[in-house]
């Protein structure tokens, strides 16, 4: 970029910098966003297909989880990266609905492009989209239903809906119950609020058995064996001590030299060291503990004394495992052994070592009212257990959201269709050019039932017409597409239920990113950045959208 002054060019931007302005910049950004939306659109719904992602090292991920797909794609285009942020935000806030949010954002931009071609200014479109998003939130709130957090059957249906179409679908009824039980176990009431930390639910994966062997452990699974083979393999009525200091003789803090001139002196010195370790074990034993978890090391001699005392011990336990054990068993983590008393101990029905495949794992289970639990996921291959883990994380997210908000809507494209209907009515009263933007927003919302129909092999036009017809009737707000038979049904009655916040968050984040991308009219790309400085390669693909390591470009 340069300017002329008295015939002399003045360089303002570094040589090689590429700049796109006006319609050209908008078209490129919208195209990048649409490509991202198309990449995940075919994964939406119960009949959605999976994607195989191969990275530069040859590692494979097989999934239809929107955020996982986008995280694993090697994306360089800045507008495309903004779309990935939509999915990440959706995942972090509510745990599900990532594909919905991205597909909706892509459709909003696609419709906006049509309005721009009609010479409607992007700021007018942005204003209309903001008004539409506010109204859509209001409409969704209006026809949501309240639920009771004690109604396990509804919570199970919510978990089941989140898992439908994922790799775990065959076992979704069984897994849904595990999810609801796990969330109920770790939820705590603080005044009128319910506090749930999903991190208190540990998911441990092991291959080698059918998914039906997945189980909920009312306690903690520690991926370690006892520190000495002479220790008991199983302890019932366990009294558990958690210590985060080492059971070793400390080195001196300053460099010291000990001169020993007599064998008896050496014997006395070693005897003192042995006595120190014996005293440590004696303190643990006298507290009443029969199970010990140490965050740091345990001396070999101390292990011997612990085994003689019949104490089950694990060394170098992770800090996160120590915190989970404290929540599950009621134990206090002790820093100084001298402070350990019976009051600091936790309890569990059983602590045992279980061999799964080639690995020895310690199960701390049958805890009374544990505030931390574990789910042991089983599956035939590594890819299967990874996908089941992702399904469980989605289900845990939506059940947690539903319990916190206690508001739900039907699924199957029903909320989007009802919001679209309400927005068209709203647009009539707005007038002006914003009316066209609000109507485009309403049309964009219908991309969700349309995608569900396409992915199920149904005619999307027939489905949209049938859904619109049902929503015009009184009490039609819950009617959506049943992909199993292609009929329009009351999805709440069919047990297809989602938390209200999943839908509201999807509308909010999709509209915000669409508005942000629309308002960009100048892209200044520094020299040397991905895609050869930002030029459009043949075929109109935005730079840096070349797919995943070694894969052909996505078109």
Q: What is shown here, in short?
A:
The chain has 16 helices and 23 strands. It is α+β, with helices and mostly antiparallel strands and 555 residues long.
Give an overview in words.
- By secondary structure, the chain is an alpha+beta fold.
- It has two domains: 14-146 and 410-525, GROEL, domain 1, CATH 1.10.560.10; 220-369, GroEL (3-Layer(bba) Sandwich), CATH 3.50.7.
- Helix content is 45%, strand content 19%.
- The protein contains 16 helices and 23 strands.
- The strands form eight sheets. Strands 11, 12, 13, 14, 15, 16 and 17 form a seven-stranded mixed sheet that branches.
- α4 (98-117) packs antiparallel against α13 (432-445), α5 runs antiparallel to α16 and α14 crosses α15 (460-472).
- It is elongated and about 100 Å long.
- The chain starts with a strand and ends in a 30-residue tail after the last strand.
Structural class: alpha+beta
The value of Rg in angstroms is: 30 Å
Number of domains: 2
* CA distance, first residue to last residue: 32 Å
Number of helices, where a helix is a run of at least 4 consecutive DSSP H or I residues: 16
Notable features of this structure?
GroEL; alpha+beta; 23 strands; single chain; three-stranded antiparallel beta sheet; disordered C terminus; GROEL, domain 1; seven-stranded mixed beta sheet; 555 residues
Show the helix and strand layout.
Layout: E1 2-5, E2 8-11, E3 18-21, H1 22-41, E4 51-54, E5 60-63, H2 66-72, H3 78-94, H4 98-117, H5 122-142, E6 145-146, H6 152-163, H7 172-186, E7 188-190, E8 193-195, E9 201-207, E10 215-217, E11 220-222, E12 234-243, H8 263-286, E13 291-294, H9 300-308, E14 312-314, H10 319-329, E15 333-334, E16 346-356, E17 359-365, E18 373-379, H11 382-405, E19 407-410, H12 414-430, H13 432-445, H14 447-455, H15 460-472, E20 479-482, E21 487-490, E22 497-499, H16 500-518, E23 522-525
Parallel strand pairs: 9-18, 12-13, 12-15, 13-14
Antiparallel strand pairs: 1-2, 3-23, 4-5, 6-19, 7-8, 10-18, 11-17, 12-16, 16-17, 19-22, 20-21
Helix pairs in contact: 1-3, 1-4, 2-3, 3-4, 3-16, 4-13, 4-16, 5-12, 5-13, 5-16, 6-7, 6-11, 7-11, 8-9, 12-13, 12-15, 14-15
């Amino acid at each position: 970029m340069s300017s002329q002054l008295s015939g002399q060019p003045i360089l303002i931007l570094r040589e090689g910098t590429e700049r796109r302005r006006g319609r050209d910049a908008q078209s490129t950004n919208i195209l990048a966003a649409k490509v991202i939306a198309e990449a995940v659109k075919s994964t939406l719904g119960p009949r959605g297909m999976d994607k195989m992602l191969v990275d530069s090292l040859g590692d494979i991920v097989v999934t239809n989880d929107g955020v996982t797909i986008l995280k694993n794609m090697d994306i360089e285009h800045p507008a495309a990266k903004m779309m990935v942020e939509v999915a990440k935000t959706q995942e972090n806030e509510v745990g599900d609905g990532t594909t919905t949010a991205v597909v909706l954002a892509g459709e909003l931009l696609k419709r906006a492009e049509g309005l721009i071609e009609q010479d409607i200014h992007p700021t007018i479109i942005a204003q209309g989209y903001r008004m539409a998003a506010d109204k859509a939130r209001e409409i969704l709130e209006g026809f949501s239903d309240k639920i009771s957090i004690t109604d396990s059957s509804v919570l199970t249906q919510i978990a089941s809906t989140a898992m439908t179409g994922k790799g775990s679908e065959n076992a979704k009824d069984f897994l849904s119950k595990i999810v609801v039980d796990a969330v109920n176990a770790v939820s705590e009431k603080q005044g009128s609020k319910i506090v749930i930390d999903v991190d208190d639910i540990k998911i441990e994966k092991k291959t080698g058995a059918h998914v039906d062997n997945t189980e909920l452990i009312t306690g903690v699974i520690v991926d370690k064996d006892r520190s000495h083979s002479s220790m008991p393999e199983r302890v019932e009525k366990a009294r558990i001590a958690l210590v985060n200091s080492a059971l070793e003789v400390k080195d001196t803090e300053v460099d010291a030299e000990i001169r020993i001139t007599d064998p008896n002196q050496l014997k006395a010195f070693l005897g003192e060291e042995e006595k120190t370790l014996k005293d440590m074990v004696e303190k643990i034993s006298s507290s009443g503990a029969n199970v010990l978890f140490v965050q740091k090391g345990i001396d070999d001699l101390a292990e011997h004394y612990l085994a003689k005392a019949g104490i089950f011990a694990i060394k170098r336990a992770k800090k996160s495992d120590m915190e989970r054990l404290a929540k599950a068993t009621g134990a206090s983590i002790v820093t100084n052994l001298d402070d350990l008393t019976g009051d600091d101990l936790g309890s569990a029905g059983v602590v045992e070592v279980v061999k799964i495949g080639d690995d020895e794992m310690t199960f701390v289970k049958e805890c009374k009212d544990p505030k931390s639990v574990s789910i042991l996921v089983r599956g035939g291959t590594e890819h299967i257990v990874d996908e089941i883990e992702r399904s469980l994380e989605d289900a845990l997210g939506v059940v947690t959201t539903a319990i916190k908000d206690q508001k739900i809507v039907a699924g199957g494209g029903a909320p989007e269709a009802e919001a679209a209907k309400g927005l068209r009515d709203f647009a009539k009263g707005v007038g002006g050019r914003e009316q066209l933007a609000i109507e485009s927003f309403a049309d964009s919302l219908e991309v969700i039932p349309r995608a569900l129909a396409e992915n199920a092999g149904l005619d999307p036009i027939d489905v949209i017409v049938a859904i619109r017809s049902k929503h015009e009737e009184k009490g039609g707000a819950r009617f959506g597409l049943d992909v199993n038979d292609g009929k329009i049904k009351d999805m709440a009655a069919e047990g297809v239920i989602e938390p209200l916040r999943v839908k509201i968050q999807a509308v909010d984040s999709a509209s915000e990113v669409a508005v942000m991308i629309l308002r960009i009219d100048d892209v200044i790309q520094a020299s040397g950045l991905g895609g050869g400085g930002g030029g459009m390669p043949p075929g109109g693909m935005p730079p840096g959208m070349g797919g995943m390591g070694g894969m052909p470009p996505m078109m």
